[in-house]
Amino acid sequence: MDVLRVEGLRKTFTTDQGGVRAVEDVTFTVEEGRFYTLLGPSGCGKTTTLRSIAGLERPEGGTIRLGETLLSGNGHFTPPQARDVGMVFQSYAIWPHMSVFQNVAFPLDAAKPRPSRAETERAVTEALALVGLEGLEDRPAPQLSGGQQQRLALARALVRKPKLLLLDEPLSNLDAKLRERMRIELRELQRRLHITTVYVTHDQIEALFLSHRIAVMRDGRIVQEASPREIYASPHSGFVADFVGIGTFVAGELQGDGVRALGGIVRCARVEEVRPGEPALLVLRPENITVRDQRADVPNEFPGTLRVAAFLGDHLDCLVEVGDTLIRARAHPGTELRREQQVFVELPLRYCVALPDDGWRPRALSRSFEEDE
Amino acid sequence: MTGSPAVAAPRTRRLPRLDSAILVPLGAALLLLYLVAFPLAMLILGSVSVQGEPTKGLTLGNYAETYSDPTTYRLLANSVLYAFGSSLLALTLGTGLAWIVERTNTPARRAFFALSLVPLIVPGVVSTIAWIFLLSGQIGVVNRVLMTLFGLDTAPFDVFSLGGMMWAEGLHLSPLVFLFMSAAFKSMDPSLEESALTSGSGTWRTLRRVTLPILLPGFASATLIMFVRGLESFEVPRLIGVPARVPVFTSTIYDQLHEYPADYGGAGALAVGLLAISAIGVWLYQRLTRRAERYATVTGKAFRPRVLDLGRWRYAALAILLVYFLLIIGLPFGILLFASFIPFYIPSLDMLSKLTLDNYRFALEHPSVRDGVRNSLLLGTTAATVTMALTAVIAWITTKTKIRGRGTLDFLAFVPIAIPGLILGVSFILQYLSPAFRFLPIYGTLWILVIAYTTKYLPYGMRTNSSAMLQIHRELEEASAVSGASWWMMFRRITLPLLRPALVAGWLYIFIVSVRELSASVLLVTSESTVLAIVIFDLFESGKSNAVAALSVMLIITLILVVLAVQRITGRFGIKE
Amino acid sequence: MVRTRSPLVLLGVLALIVLACGGAAAPTSAPATAPAATAAATARATAAATAATPAGQLDAETIAKAKAEGKLVFYTSLNEDDAKYVVGKFEAANPGIKVTLNRKSSEKITSQFITEAKAGKIIADVLETGGLDIAKPIKEGLVAEFRPPAAAAFPDSLKDPKGLWTAARLGIETIAWNTSQVKAADAPKSFEDLADPKWKGKILIESTDVEVMLALAKVKWKGDDAKVRDYFTKLAANQLQPSAGHTETLDLLIAGQRAVFWGAHGHTTEQKAKAGAPVDYMRTEGVLTVDGAVLAKGAPNPNAAKVFINWYVSEGGQRAILDRKRVPARPGIADASLLPKTIYVSGPEGLADFDKYQKLWKEILGF
C-alpha cells in the first residue's frame, strides 16, 4: 500500500538573480514501512522536497498525498501543524531551554485533544526507551552529547506515532564512528517499527545501508530510482554511477558490443541505450577490477603501470595507468605490488556496462579517494 | 488555507484562517502603526491647521509665519550651535576617556568604567540643577572658590550662557560617548595596529594613521547621535537657556504651548522643522553605520586590544580620570548635598551653621513626590513590559517571515529614535486633544504617558529583540510546527523563553532609563499624573531648589544602589546605545 | 489716580478702580468710569462696614453634598508653605473634606488649568491666582458662576458682577534688596530710583512681570506712554538679569547674585526675612495686585469647591492669609503695616491692555 505519493512536485525559489528552480517535476511513491532515500549533491533539491512533504515549503505545483489525505496540491495546502508527520532536522533542533522529557512531550502538548498527564508520561517513556534514552527524562537537553541529542530528536519525532517519518541528513554532524553506530541503530529501529520513512542524504554509504529504495537527484529532478543493489550495479548515467559508489570512468566510442578505449576494445556485458558509433561511457568499479603482476589471458585484460598502491587495511587501493587513463582498482591487502611495476588489469566482462555519454565527467581523481560531497 | 508565516506564498488566493498566526502579528503591527504613525500624522496635520486644530481649517500660515520670522533663524542657529558644541565636548571627553580606559595601562581604570555609568541614570534635570548651583555667575560655588583663590572681582564662569549650556549638556552626554567609543576600541583588531608598529611606525603616527581612520566611522556616527541628542535636549535649554536668553527650538516650543493663548499651530510648525533636522541626522547615522559595518573587524571572536604602556604618564592619565569623575559625579553630587542641608542658598561656608533637615522632611512628605515616585515606577514597569512584548512580536515578523511590508514595520519601530522627546509630547497633545480622539480621553491620565514612553522606547526594545531573534535557529521553530504546535504555542513556549536574556536586558534598560525621562512627559503630565523628573522640575521652577537638592541626593543614592543590584543580577550590565 | 495713606480709604479706592475697569474682563458688564463722588461715598460705606461682617453661610444642601464629595482639588499660585498652611486651616475647620493641592507659578498654574479644561479633563475644582491670570480662564468660558455668601458684603470691586470671581488676597509687588550688599541708607525709595545708572549690573527682574509695568503705566503715570518708555529704557540700560519665577528670583537675590530685585513680592520677602535671610523690601511705594478665586466649570467636586471658596473669603480663611503676612482682600482684616505707603492697583480688568504692554516689555527689555 502506498503511504506517500508525490506527483509532479515543483518549487521555485526567487533569489536576487531571478528564479532558481529547486525542485522540478519530482514524482515518487513510498510504500508502507519502506525506507526511501533521496540521495544527491547539495543543491539538488532533496531537502526542498523533504521540507515540502513536511509542509515547511509551499510548492508551486504538484501534489503530495499521505494515505488518503491530500497534503498539498490543487490549490490546497495543509499547514505543517496539521500533518501526521514526524521530522528529524539536520541540526536536531532540540530546544535548549527544556529538559529531555519536555522536548519529547511537546508534540503531545500540542495535540488536540491533549492527552492526560499519565498518557503523556507513558508515551514519552516509551519513545525514550525506543531510542535508548530511558532514565534521562529530567536532564536539560543541552547537556546531552551529540549522539544523544540526535536520538532525542528521533524520539520526539516518533512520540506521536506518525504515519511518516522524515529525516534531513541527521547523521552528518556526527563523527565517523558514531555515525556508523547510529546508522545501524536507525536501520534496526525503522525495520522494527515498520514506519514509512523518507531520508535525505548526500552520503552514498548511508543511502545504500539504510534504504529499501534510493532516488538519486540532480538539479531538481530524480535521475534514477531503484533498489540499492540495482542503482549500484546498473547506474543509468555516469553521474549516478559516480554518486553511488566509486569508479573509474572511461569514455570511448561504441563499437560492436564493446567500447573502444584503453588502447583496445573493452567488451561489455550490457549496453544501455547507446548505438554503435555513439560516444559511450564505461563505468569501472574498483572492487570488480583485478590487478595482477602477470598476464592471465582473460578477456578484457590490459597492460598498465602501477602508479599508486595505498594500504587501506582491508584492501590495497591502486591506481593503474593504462594508456592515458588512470584506473582505480583494488587488490588483496597481502598482494606484493611495487610502484612503477608492470601489471595487468582485468575488467571482468559481466561488470562492464556501457552508458550513454552525456558529457558528464567526474571531478579529478587526484583530488581525493573519497567520493564527492 | 492558512500558510504558516514562516513561508510566504506569492500566489495563494484563499483567505487566511483567523488563528493566532495571523491575529497576534497583525495586532502587533496595527498597534505599532497606531503608536508611531498616528502621532506623527497628527503632528503634521496640526502644523498645517489653524491654531493647531484641524477642525478650524487647514492653512500654511503657521509655516509662513514661523519661517518668515527672523527669530526662527536665530533659534536655528542657537540650536545647531548648542547641539554641535555640546556634542564636540562630549566626544572629546568621551573618546579620550575611552582610550585611556580601553587602550592604556592606567591604574584603576576598570573602576571608572562602572562609575561612568552612573550619570547615565541620573535625570538630566538633576545634573542641570547641580551645574546651576556650581557655575551661576556670582553665586556659583566654583566661581566663588576661584574668585577667593585668585582674588578675582568678577566670576570667571557663568553657566547662564551658550557656553555654559554646552558645558552642562556636553558633560551630560559624555558617558554615552564613552560607552560608544569604548565598544569601538574593544572591537578593534589589534593586529591592524601591530602590523603598523612592526613596520616601523611610531606610536603617535600609528594612532594618527591607523587607529583614528579605522575609528572614524564609529566616531562620526557617535557625533551624529550626540548632535541629535543635543537638538532634542530640553532640561538645559529650559533651566539654563531661558534665563541666559539663548532660546532654542525645544525651549521655544515649550513656551509657545504655555503662552496664553497657546499657539499649537506655531509650535507644530517649529516641531516639524526640528523633526526634519533630527531625521536627517539619524538617516546620515544609519548610512554611516551601515558603511562602517564593512570596516568592522568584529568576527565574534573576543579581541584582546593592545594596551599602551604609558610609563610615568599613566599617573597623569589617572589624574585625568579623577578630574573627569569629579566633574561628572563628584562636584554635582557634592553641591546638591550641600544645598540639601541649608534653608536657603548662599554660597558661603557660613551656611554650615544653619544646617537643617527641613528640606528632606519636605521632600519626603510632599504628596507630589510620593505620587511622582509611584508613577515613575509604575510607568517604567508598564512601558518596559509593553515595549518588550510588542517588539518581540514585531522582531519576529521582521526577522522570521518574508511578509511584504516587514521593512516598513522595521522602519516604523526605529523611527522614534529620530523624534525628540518634546516633539513626541507635542504630537501626543495634538492627537489626544483633537476632537477625533475624544472617545479616548486618556490625556491627564497615566495612560497617555504609557503610550508616550512605549513609543519612545520602541527602538531600544526592537534592537535588543531583533539581534536576539536572529540567533534563534529557524529549525527550532520549524520543529515546533512539525510537532503540531500553533503559532501562539510556539511563540509562547519556544521563542519567548529563548529570547529571555534579551527580554530581561531590554526590560531593565528601559525601566531604568525611563526614570530619567522628562522631555516627552513635560507636556503630558497633569497634577494627577506626574512623574519624578517632572516633580523635580516643577519644584525647582517653584523656587524650592533646596528641597529639590534633597530629593536629588536621595534619588542619586537610590539609583546607584539599583545599578549595583542590577549588575549583580545580570552579571554584566552593558548598555549599548 | 489717588495716592492715599489711609488703608480704609485705600480699600474704597480699590473698589472704585476695580469697578471702573472690571467691565473689560466680563464682556457684558458696563464699561464705565465712576465719578469721584461715588468713590468717596463707597469709601465711607466700606469704612462703616468693617465692624460687623455677616457670617455668610452656605445652604445646608450644599454643605451636605460637599461632605458627600469629601474632597476637592485646589490649584493656586500661593507659594508652597502658604498654600499648605491655608489648606491645613481649611481641613481643620471642615473635617471630612480633603484638599489636594497643586501649586505652580501663576502663569503655569493658569496654563495648566486651561489646557486640562480644554482637553476635556477637568481636574481642578478651584483656581486661585493673580488677577490678570484669573481673567484668562474666564475669557475662555471655563469658569462657573458662584457668589460666596461670605463675600456678600465685599465691595463690588472685590468681586465679579457676574459672579465669576471673588477677590481673596492682594499681592504687593515692589523692590527688594539683599541687606548684605545694600545698606539701609542706600536702599531705593521709589521705582524711579532704579533708573539711576548707579544700579547698573545690580538688578534682578522676573522676566514676565508685565503686570508691574502695566500698573505703573496706567496708575502711576496715568497712561503716559512716553514716560513709560523713558523709564523702562533707562532701566534696561542698567543690564537687568532676567530670571523665571518670583520665588526663584528671590532665591537668587538671597544667594547674592545681584543686589536688588525689581518687582519682588512683598510677602515672600517678608517670610524669608523672618526666616533669617538677608532681604528686605521697599515700603514707600508698590503695586497691589488683586488675586482671586474661581470655580471651575464642570468641576468634579462643585459643592466641596463652593464650601472652600466660601471659607476662603470668610473671616476664617482670610485670617489664615493674614497669618502668612499677606494682604487678605476681605475688608477690615489687613495688616496695614505691611502695605507700602503709596499703592498702584492692578486687577483682572488689566487683561484688556495686557498685549500692548507685553509687546512694549519685549521691545524695550528684550525678553
Number of helical elements of chain A: 8
Distance between the termini of chain C: 30 Å
- Report the largest inter-chain contact: B-C, 34 and 49 residues
Radius of gyration of chain A: 24 Å
Q: How many individual domains of chain A? A: 2
User: For the residues shown, what is the average pLDDT of chain C?
Assistant: 81
In angstroms, what separates the terminal alpha carbons of chain A? Answer: 34 Å
Number of strands of chain C: 12
- Based on CA inertia axes, which overall geometry of chain A fits? globular
What does the main sheet of chain C amount to?
A: 12 strands, mixed
- The overall pLDDT average of chain A reads 87
What percent of residues of chain C adopt helix (DSSP H or I)?
Answer: 40-55%
What best-fitting shape of chain C do the alpha-carbon axes yield?
globular
**Assembly context of the chains:** heterotrimer
Low-confidence segments of chain C, ≥5 residues, pLDDT <50?
Answer: 1-54
* CATH topology description of the largest domain in chain A: Rossmann fold
- Tally of helical segments of chain C: 13
SSE order of chain C, one letter for each helix or strand: HHHEHEHEHEEEHHEHEHEEHHEEH
Task: Please give the CATH architecture of the largest domain in chain A.
Answer: 3-Layer(aba) Sandwich
**CATH homologous superfamily caption of the largest domain in chain A:** P-loop containing nucleotide triphosphate hydrolases
Number of DSSP-assigned strands of chain A = 22
In words, what does this structure look like?
The complex is a heterotrimer of chains A (373), B (577) and C (367). Chain A is built from 8 helices and 22 strands. Chain A is α+β, with helices and mostly antiparallel strands and 373 residues long. Chain A starts with a strand and ends in a 17-residue tail after the last strand. A 6-stranded mixed sheet of chain A has the order 7-8-9-3-10-11, with helices on both faces. In chain A, strands 14-13-12-16-22-15 form a 6-stranded mixed sheet. Chain A has 2 domains: 230 residues, P-loop containing nucleotide triphosphate hydrolases (Rossmann fold, 3-Layer(aba) Sandwich), CATH 3.40.50.300; 113 residues, Nucleic acid-binding proteins (OB fold (Dihydrolipoamide Acetyltransferase, E2P)), CATH 2.40.50.140. By secondary structure, chain B is mostly helical. Helices cover 71% and strands 0% of the residues of chain B. Chain B is globular, with a radius of gyration of 25 Å. Chain C is built from 13 helices and 12 strands. In chain C, strand 1, helix 4 and strand 2 form a beta-alpha-beta unit. In chain C, helix 5 packs parallel to helix 6. The radius of gyration of chain C is 20 Å and the shape is globular. The two termini of chain C are 30 Å apart. Chains in contact: A-B, B-C.
